[in-house]
């Protein structure tokens, strides 16, 4: 995809019924201080509250910079992303969902400066503050994160928060046909981009990732979350099987572990039919295993006294940090 507009960055923002949050999200983008032009492309998925009106007010204030799609019909998360993504014109794309926000005026400048001077990188991302709104607690993401990684690392697990990502637009051409079948787009888009360059991590926190009861991911139960993770990996495995065997193998390992976790979840619920379905799903991508292998791996591994003690101490420290975080205010631009 060529960029003939002179735009350096398109900020992609999806929103649906987020009237409590959307103002802060848009404000944090429009207050960015840069030496290049950028646009904000908003896909409002037929919200039934005041989200569309708030977005329209911002668009009137910045008519040359904000592109607003107030959809008349609800498309769902994935189609809203696909159609909004297609309208982005910048050399780079950044993401800020309608219930998240940025906390550093120089966020875009810092990330663009890095990618401009490192052409062998496809993506850069940064640390975020995870805000668990319903509990009022906060935590920092990416503890122990390596500074530079690649697609093989990303195939093991998704460590990129959407609100932190900046990536080059058009590296892989059009979105593949199967993209519409994933329930969340983030992991798929980051892996597709990572085929064409390394990934850089900036330790500086520059955004808040808000987790609350009405968010799509937060609303999903454990089984639904694990199933979403399996579906995207199955689609990605089919895509990478003939392209990158290392990526395919790492995705297979991750898929197997998620299957085992899902089986243990169903075992705790006594859901035998779901257990058997997930076992078959696992063996489809691990044909070298037998059902006896799977049954053996399903059993929880016994912990030593040292491991139990370490887990107890870790849990106490986590609860202590969570309690302290309640009195620490969230940063804002």
Automatic annotation (TrEMBL):
Does the keyword Transferase feature in the UniProt annotation?
yes
Domain Glycosyltransferase 2-like: start-end pairs: 10-173
- Asked if the record carries the keyword Transferase, the reply is yes
This entry's Gene Ontology molecular function terms read: hexosyltransferase activity
Keyword line: Transferase
- This chain's protein is named Glycosyltransferase
Name the source organism: Bacteroides stercoris
Biological classification of the source? Bacteria, Pseudomonadati, Bacteroidota, Bacteroidia, Bacteroidales
